[in-house]
Specification:
Blueprint (H helix, E strand, L loop, with lengths): L9 E7 L3 H12 L6 E7 L6 H11 L3 E3 L8 H11 L4 E6 L3 E2 L3 H12 L3 E10 L6 E2 L10 E2 L1 H6 L16 E3 H7 L11 H11 L4 E13 L10 H18 L4 H28 L3 H10 L1 H5 L2 H13 L19 E5 L10 H15 L3 E6 L10 E3 L9 E4 L2 E4 L2 E4 L2 H18 L21 H11 L5 E5 L16 E5 L7 H7 L11 H8 L4 E4 L2 H10 L4 E4 L17 E5 L4 H21 L4 E5 L2 H4 L11 E5 L5 H6 L2 E4 L9 H8 L4 E3 L1 H4 L3 H4 L9 H13 L1 H18 L2 H14 L3 H4 L11
Parallel strand pairs: 1-2, 1-4, 2-3, 6-10, 11-12, 11-17, 12-14, 17-18, 18-19, 19-20, 21-22, 21-24, 22-23, 24-25
Antiparallel strand pairs: 4-9, 5-10, 6-7, 6-9, 8-10, 13-16, 15-16
Length: about 750
Amino acid sequence: MTLSLERPLVSVVMANHNGARFLAEALRSALAQSLAAIEVVLADDGSTDDSLAIARAIAAEDRRLVILPSAPNGGPGAARNRGLAAARGHWIAVMDSDDLMHPERLARLLEVAEQTGCDILADDMLAFFADGSAPRPLLRGRLALPAEIDLATYVRANVLFGRLPALGYLKPFLRAETLRRSGIRYDPALRIAEDYDLVARLLATGARFRILPELTYFYRRHDASTSHRLRRTDLTAMLASDSAFRAAIGPQDAATEATFRRRRASIERALAYDGILAALKAGDPAAALREAIRSPGGAALLRLPLRDRLARMLARPRPVAAPLPAPEGAARRLRVHVVSRNRVTGRESGSSAYLLGLCGAMAEAGHELHLTWPSPAPLGRTPVLRLRPEMAVFRSVNMRGTWRMGRFLVARDPAIWAAAGLGIADRLLRKAGLGLDGLVRKAPYAVAVPWRAEDLLHVATRIRGEADVVVADYAFLTPAFPYALSPTARRIVVMHDLFSSRAAQFARAGSMDSVALIDQASELRLLGAADAVVAIQGEEGAFIRQSLPGRQVIVAPLAAEPVAAPQLGEGVSLLFVGSDTAPNLDGLRWFLREVLPRIRQAVPQAELHVAGKAGPAIGPLPEALAGAVKILGLVPDLAPHYRAAAVVVSPLLVGSGLKVKLVEALSQGKAVVATSVTLQGVQEECAPAVLPVDEARDFAAEVVALLLDPVLRGERAAASLQVARERFSAASCYAGLLGYLATGRTEDAAAASKHGGLSAA
């Protein structure tokens, strides 16, 4: 194979022996690194399975994969040495052929290496298991270690069955020049602890070793894994290697010598323990007793099987769940795991309604859905959430930091209960003209809160590699993808909105976004982590196609459930529906300040009803509007309010994203007056029913005309219902998504519907 003459920054060296089962996933994980200037050097160790055929097929797609000629089976050390000899990178990353890497791993290690000048780096390791046990990190939650590791600390951390985490399990990231200058290579005699031996020898030459706390190497434990099984031949080889190493480096300081003695003693205890077990299995209790008397330390290790069995009993590992059978005649049922930080407990908000609409379509198509909240942040200051009946679309629902009690999620954190108590006290005191200003603060918008290590670990624990599809609810949730530990799963992100476009809009309106401030490059980087992007309207979908040409783009508006006939409403009441996000509040304030007074000049009896959280959040109303505005707050059912309203208004000034309330009003057969921001991306579809009106005077005039002319209002209401039926049917809106799930491509669905997804390729 012809190689580029340009030297790669990093060479990933991978030894493989009969690893066909997981080799493709490991190779693709290495090649999918965000750091493109790499090569992957595969050193096959006498495989007799399909390993080489798998590797060659991948190499035909990506020339950065270098396959060395296979050699007779000599163990991982010998294979890695061949890989080291062929590697051309400035840095060497060692990887096993059944493991996975976070896509940012090599870029992050290289960045820290250049910042610190270290010769060896390693990150935390997430072990995940084939038997359904919960994934667990090697370092997190264990005894603290310094960021830089010297020889004595490293040897002490590799005492068998010791209290410190075994750092020899970590996969090293090595400066190639340090290896070349030292001449140190893997010991071919070692089939276990070969990484420990290599790093220890480098440390003895003065190399600097740094550990990063990031959990970015994923270590797969399965029935064919070898590094967690200590056989007698391996232990004997470890003793011989230890002796040779100590002889080569000569006497060390007292602390280092003490750690070497402790490690050697631990290997000898493990050998004695192995002898005791062998005697017991052979039915020779006398020999086992003699070995136990000779080595009490080895006998003490008999507690390990009991401890491990007890730990397994207490942990109650979750059985690997088989997907439910697909309905007869349907396509294969996929396990779809949705990761969200949105407070999705029902259709109370536009974003929740949109996600539940998508999930409902997937469930109707026969797929199995699960919902995971990796963080308790969606609770805010509400310690108990009630799951509404529509949440039954999910086979399982779980939020970190809560107990599930039937249809309720209950916070475990006392601080959330305390915050709720303060909020209640503040509301009561405000009624008496007092308050707790400074003590009561609105909880941050959970969608964009920073990720914590506990959040990522919760994703791994919940999904455990069992996903066929992982859906990130908002771009901010795409960092969850690698931690699903499902490398073959399709990754979908639901945009909801193009947040980077909103900052300028808010600035022009003299306001600030309540959700998140993010620049375009950062948002595209988050969206680019997905295989497919779901946009709620065509304009944003077109932007993503242009900006991320390697991604599938699915345009999926919210589907409507139209009423039977147009609804003209009663009297001269207006209806605004919205949550307490900044776009809704800014638009509502503008309407109250600039538009409603003009309407009341022409129609003095006109009254605005405000449904949703926007009303209570709007603050004190002007005296001139006393009696003209009715704050409804959250209502259990919007249908009666839509039915009664003469005109529905949507006066958004910023924020192009969700069209949920607009589509909802159309499906209720209502006359609607809206701004061009409200209609952004769906203006053509809505043109027969709703025209954009942006000036306050014109907006008021349009509303007045509809209030005073029932015939005109009836025509608009009928047009709205027709648009909902023709343009926002479930079949039309969700065809692209369902087609992508069925085929992995969106072209087939595009022909079925104007709103269906189109390939971005």
